[in-house]
Specification:
Layout lengths: L12 H7 L16 E5 L5 H19 L3 E4 L4 H9 L5 E3 L13 E6 L6 E6 L14 E4 L5 H13 L5 E4 L3 H9 L5 E5 H11 L3 E6 L7 E4 L5 H13 L7 H6 L5 E2 L7 H9 L3
Helix pairs in contact: 1-2, 4-9
Length: about 280
């Protein structure tokens, strides 16, 4: 069952400035090139997302000559709805593997590095040691659409015969912030956000569930993008990790770059979504 979408909030001037950037676009002339719209899943706040992705998109625009512009909704639900309407040309997400979106876009590359895991965590001093200890407890999830932070966690809880009360925080770091503040008994998150958040916010936690590994999120691309541009963008993304001029950008984004991927690599993601009816 999906919750109704919340109404959009007005954009703040700073956020509008960040999102209206068309990184790498040519100087204004009589016929400027229309940028490709690059969507990003709401794993962090929109401002944090813009700070992370605009430098990467500016680099790619300059390398390829294809202007790219960041675009996303205020919430996960809004961004997913935009993807469902096929407003994006490229998207960094794994929500496309849900039934209602599957097939609209194709995998281009994926974020490189260690696989992700779904993780359910409690504060270090919590008495909970295993999933059954969470029976009837309040858990924070990033959103109803989150893969590692909701779908994976819910399958694990179901398999353990555990029923919990859900609170939705809006994104990964929001779920961890609720745990840190003591507002919930546990949080379900994508493991790739757990260590950086804990280090930055001095969160002392204990994991009571860690899932099987899943590949990092892919960059997907819409079939309307010309094949020549698809090839150019794929090459530029894969080459980032070998380009010295991109090293500082990747370090800032806490990324090792991108690596090759295909549709079949995400079949286990599809299976999890189908297991909870998504």
């Amino acid at each position: 069952m999906r919750f109704p979408h919340r109404p959009a909030l007005p954009l703040y001037p700073l956020l509008l400035a960040l999102f209206c950037l068309a990184p790498g676009a040519r100087a204004a002339d009589s016929a400027p090139t229309k940028p490709l719209l690059f969507g990003v899943l709401n794993q962090q706040s929109p401002i944090q997302t813009a700070e992370k992705w605009n430098p990467l998109l500016r680099y790619l625009s300059q390398k390829t000559g294809i202007p790219l512009q960041l675009k996303m909704g205020h919430t996960v639900e809004q961004t997913d709805a935009m993807m469902g309407r096929e407003e994006f040309d490229l998207v960094f997400t794994n929500h496309n593997f849900q039934t209602e979106y599957d097939g609209k876009y194709k995998v281009l590359v994926r974020w490189a590095g260690r696989p992700i895991h779904g993780s359910i965590v409690v504060l270090e001093n919590s008495p909970a040691r295993q999933l059954k200890d969470l029976q009837g407890r309040l858990l924070s999830f990033p959103s109803l659409e989150a893969f590692a932070g909701y779908a994976v966690a819910m399958v694990a809880l179901k398999d353990a015969g555990v029923t919990v009360k859900a609170r939705f925080a809006g994104n990964q770091e929001g779920a961890l912030a609720q745990l840190k503040a003591g507002q919930v008994d546990a949080a379900a998150v994508n493991s790739s956000f757990l260590e950086p958040y804990a280090e930055r916010e001095k969160l002392r936690y204990r994991q009571i569930f860690i899932s099987e590994p899943y590949y990092e999120l892919p960059v997907i691309i819409h079939p309307r993008v010309p094949a020549e541009q698809v090839a150019i963008l794929r090459h530029a993304l894969l080459d980032m990790r070998h380009d010295p001029s991109a090293a500082a950008l990747l370090q800032q984004a806490r990324s090792p770059g991108f690596e090759a991927a295909d549709e079949a690599a995400y079949d286990n993601v599809r299976r999890i979504y189908r297991a909870i009816g998504q």
